[in-house]
Amino acid sequence: MLFTRLLQRLAAFELPTQCAVCHDWGRERVCFACRERFIATVPRCRRCALRVPDGVSTCAGCLKDPPPYDTTLAAVDYAHPWDHLIGRFKFHAALDLTQSLAKSLADAWQASRLRHPGRLIPVPLSARRLRERGYNQSVEIARRLGRRLNCPVDDRLLLRVNDTPHQLALPPERRAANVQGAFAIEPKRLAELRDQVVTVLDDVMTTGATAAEIARVLRHAGAAQVNVWVLARTPAPE
Questions:
Q1: pLDDT exceeding 90 applies to what percent of the chain?
Q2: What digits encode the pLDDT tens for the residues 4-36?
Q3: Does residue 16 lie within any of the structural domains?
Q4: Which residues span the domain enclosing 136?
Q5: I want to staple 228 with a disulfide (CB 3.0 to 4.6 A). Which of 121, 166, 179, 211 is the partner?
Q6: Number of folded domains in the chain?
Q7: How many degrees, rounded to 5, is the angle at CA 225 between CA 191 and CA 50?
Q8: pTM as predicted
Q9: Does 170 fall in a domain?
């Protein structure tokens, strides 16, 4: 019992670390000052999380052609310094950033008026890409969010059945076709989605093609509401 208590105290003890942005010393990998400087609370479209003018809840694009998901929450724009940090986290095993990135998304939800996410479903990687990378960045964020928000995380329900080229390698107009048919629900678990509220978790949303394809699969399986949470949203072209 004494040993267990000692381990719990050691786990709770936060050692000083350098901020990944300004390199000042503190308790988190992204310090409070950098969060204040680089996280802007801006109005975003409720459906796709693009920036909108004050007083506007849904952008013109979503009014004209609504996406198959109900809401989107984004913590930040995919811009300095977040593009660099997410790139390190995603492609260079900078898992020390996971907690700070998850906190940014949790803070964004707490500042929003969106409902509780329900079941968190991280976007799966193909088996080949998972072997190459050694981890799924969306799963890492989802696990920490699940603990923060007290919600279940399910990384076995949604399957990636086609190993498609990376979306970053394709022009925007080809991304929807690239992910078509790439995802499926674990066949033995289809009944679990009926009338459920689920939230798809990904690192970055650019065109929304991946989120849209997954939302269609989840709705076809009976999900009542499909939300999307991303660390960063690529701003609309000027």
A1: 80
A2: 565 455 445 556 799 999 999 988 999 999 999
A3: no
A4: 41-233
A5: 211
A6: 1
A7: 140
A8: 0.89
A9: yes
